[in-house]
Design a protein that fits this description.
Elements: E1 4-8, E2 13-20, E3 25-29, E4 52-56, E5 65-66, H1 75-88, E6 94-99, H2 101-113, E7 117-123, H3 160-170, H4 181-191, E8 206-211, H5 219-228, E9 232-237, H6 250-259
Parallel strand pairs: 3-4, 3-6, 6-7, 7-8, 8-9
Antiparallel strand pairs: 1-2, 2-4, 2-5
């Protein structure tokens, strides 16, 4: 493992990060409950062949530590962590790929960072507010004991190939009866996320990408985001929440957009 730890004393956090690759700088913001120890992480994704990729565990998750464990972080806190980490890494301007929860952080980041964000991809995410919220994971899974696999792809149960794939990817992910405190804090920030009325402040060219069968961030949420961001393009792919790994055209489209 090549992970390293960055002290951000002004942010009162210690961030576990990883960085590798050559090319334009790209900051990857991961989703709910993400952890760099879960392979394959972003440094093994197709983007790693084209960019200088910086990725990390959000505060309270993985091996990143929030020094005040009782502080409830806002989505702006998560975004400000990104900027502070980029400052520490010497990145004045960078592209951003935000996936799911990471896409929510990316919205706050792009609103606040202005021209520092050169290009952005928002994947399978939501703006909250009038643009629609993602599935309320803070309320627990629909059946009370385990993930409803149809949230990941609404074809589960009706399409055997999709059901097999989603079961392989997510069938083992039972939510613990008592979620760890860091996850609870992340889900609380997610529940209060609302950038919709401020999305028109984003200046970065943006690709809003989503899966047609996503039950966590429904297609209508991506459509609403694309309508609000001035310089944005909407792209629909054949898949659910993990469409990047379901539709073979998804990663090439993301890479082409970020490199253009």
């Amino acid at each position: 493992m090549s992970e390293f730890f960055v002290e951000l004393p002004d942010r009162q956090v210690t961030i576990c990060a990883d960085r590798a690759g050559e090319g334009p700088p790209l900051v990857v913001l991961n989703g709910t409950a993400s952890d760099l120890r879960n392979a394959p992480n972003a440094l093994a994704w197709p983007i790693a062949e084209h960019f200088d990729v910086l990725t990390f565990d959000h505060r309270c998750l993985g091996r990143s530590v929030q020094h005040d464990p009782d502080h409830q972080p806002s989505m702006a806190d998560f975004a400000d962590d990104v900027l502070a980490l980029c400052d520490q890494q010497g990145l004045d301007e960078f592209a951003v790929l935000g996936i799911s929860f990471g896409g929510m952080v990316a919205q706050e980041l792009a609103i606040g960072a202005g021209s520092r964000v050169s290009r952005m991809v928002l994947a399978c995410t939501s703006s909250g507010g009038a643009g629609g919220a993602s599935y309320p994971l803070h309320n627990g899974p629909p059946n009370g004991t385990s993930y409803d696999l149809a949230l990941w792809d609404s074809r589960v149960g009706t399409d055997d190939a999709v059901t097999k794939l989603i079961t392989q990817l997510f069938g083992h992910r039972d939510r613990p009866s008592t979620p760890p405190p860091g996850l609870v804090q992340q889900l609380s920030a997610r529940a209060h996320h609302d950038t919709f009325d401020r999305l028109d402040q984003i200046t970065a060219p943006t690709l809003v990408a989503h899966g047609l069968f996503d039950g966590i961030a429904p297609p209508s949420n991506s459509e609403a985001i694309a309508k609000r961001i001035p310089n944005s393009v909407l792209a629909t792919f054949d898949g659910g929440h993990p469409f990047l790994w379901q539709d073979r055209s998804a990663w090439p489209a993301v890479i082409d957009f970020l490199r253009s």
